[in-house]
Amino acid sequence: MSENNFPELALIDEHGQSFTYRLQGPGDFHRPASPITSRKVYAAAHVIPQMGADNTPGAPAVIDWDATLAYRHELWSYGLGVADAMDTAQRGMGLDYPATCELINRSAQEAATVISENRYPALTGLTVRDILSCGVGTDQLTIESVEPGQLQKVTDAYLEMLRLVEASGAKSILMCSRALAKAAQTPEDYLQVYGNLLEAAQQPVILHWLGEMFDPQLAGYWGTTDLSEATSVFQSILEKYSQKIDGVKVSLLNAEHEKQLRSALPPGIRLYTGDDFNYPELIDGDGELHSDALLGIFAAIYPAASTALQALDAADSARGRAILDSTRELGLHIFSAPTFYYKTGIAFLSWLNGHQSGFQMVGGLHAGRSLPHLIRTFILADSAGLILNPGLAAERMEQLLAVYGIKAANRSLTGVS
Question: What is the DSSP string of 348-392?
């Protein structure tokens, strides 16, 4: 133990060389005493499996509901909304359709209880839709079951889940669909399907644009691989159905494109950034416009994110931006290529911080990152003050290293070489 009582432990760098690392301790983060008002934000939360279940590729998801819902309570207590049944929750990568439906219903029931009991000061006066949004997709359909041109089949699957989410009381997020990417052959096909969905929606929804870096099967979404043309298709939907759209979530990791789209949105439509690389500048804004947020990285950095948003509420934009900037390197690392494995880093930090008893994910995705990648995640999270229980995290890191066959350090360094 070091003189400041934070642990030291032996790690390895990307070359397999050992070094000693001393933890820095948690940051000065705190829960808000009232709702966050300067930005509307949702943290995309992951699911936690039962540790003794068959958490292998292709196996049905067996969820630890107590731990999964407790994680949502943690986010709510910091004043953040939860975006559930999104790609963060292994949607389309291990979370099957029955488990997705159960997740939506359980989270909505929990959110309703939190609101009715006024459980957290940070949520006082809010509604279920304020604190929970859920993804609407087409998980009932396999890619193999869909043929080009089968738009009605895809629309029916969407509508089934739209009814489920709306009945739960949560806000609906119309997610991009792999099935639609296969069925649609022209931009007009996308306009037809989304038009039918928005006509059917009972309350305003969030439209979700997910880039192929998150899901390669979505390449050419909106009927074209040209970004400018795709944006025109997307904007035509926004303009025609503006009264049915609460906001748009854009996950293209392209800050300049987001700023241009943000400035062209019809009145009343929010831009919920999904840019896990550039979120500090996009949330901070340019003095005139800013992005709200629906972010996977917020599930990993929620104490810092909440404290930064509280600073923005207090008109201390410099402090808010500085806190968000302090987490940016962690975000860049967790979401580094192949980006679709970012979920592994979020679950890893959840385990280190004691929110789940083991480092496992449904669908075997806990194997999605290398040991050096995880070690770097650990160090960057600690540098940002996001290792909340250093003793527990150090113990668990040592357990992980032992499982990987890493012995005691041979030499000491001051950081990753």
Answer: HHHHHTTSSSSS--GGGGGGSS-HHHHHHHHHHHHHTT--S-HHH
Exposed, middle or buried, 18 (CB in 10 Å: 0-12/13-18/19+)?
A: middle
C-alpha span between 354 and 334 (Å, rounded): 19
Q: Let me know: does 362 contact 49? Beta carbons within 8 Å.
A: yes
The string of pLDDT tens digits covering residues 171-217 is 999 999 999 999 999 999 999 999 999 999 999 999 999 999 999 99
User: Hey, is 8 helix, strand or coil?
Assistant: strand
Cα separation, 385 vs 406, whole angstroms: 26
- Judged against a pLDDT cut of 80, whether residue 93 lies above it is answered with yes
- Give DSSP secondary structure letters for 294-307: EESTHHHHHHHHHH
Tell me the pTM.
Answer: 0.94
Q: Under 8 Å CB-to-CB from 194, ≥6 apart: which residues?
A: 174, 207, 237, 241
Please tell me the distance from the alpha carbon of residue 84 to that of residue 22, in angstroms, as a whole number: 35
- 416, exposed or middle or buried, with CB in 10 Å at 0-12, 13-18, 19+? middle
Q: Is the pLDDT of residue 413 over 50?
A: no
Alpha-carbon span 330 to 378, nearest angstrom: 9
Q: How far apart are the first and last CA of the chain?
A: 23
Helix H or strand E encompassing 20: strand 18-22
Distance set, CA 356 to CA 66, 352, 359, 360 (Å): 10, 8, 7, 9
List the structure tokens of 366. Answer: 């806990």
Is residue 2's pLDDT more than 70? no
Return d(Cα 254, Cα 230) in angstroms, integer.
Answer: 14
Q: What is the DSSP letter of 241?
A: T
**Which tens digit of pLDDT belongs to each residue from 226-242?**
999 999 999 999 999 99
